[in-house]
Amino acid sequence: MFHDLDETLKAMLDDAAAPAELRAADVSFDTPDKDYKPTEATVNLFLHEVTENRSLRDEARVLASASDVFTSRLPSLRVDCTYLATAWSSQAGGLKAAEEHRLLGLAMQWLSRFPVVDERFLRGSLKTPPQPYPLPAVVAQTQENRPIGEFWSALGVPPRPAFPVTVTITLDPYDEVEELAPVQEVHLRSTLVDHPVLRGMVFDKSLAPVPSAAISVVETGALATSGPDGAFVVPGLEFGSYTLTVRASGLPDEQVAVMFAADHQTQTVVLSGP
Question: Average pLDDT in the 130-154 region?
Answer without folding.
Answer: 81
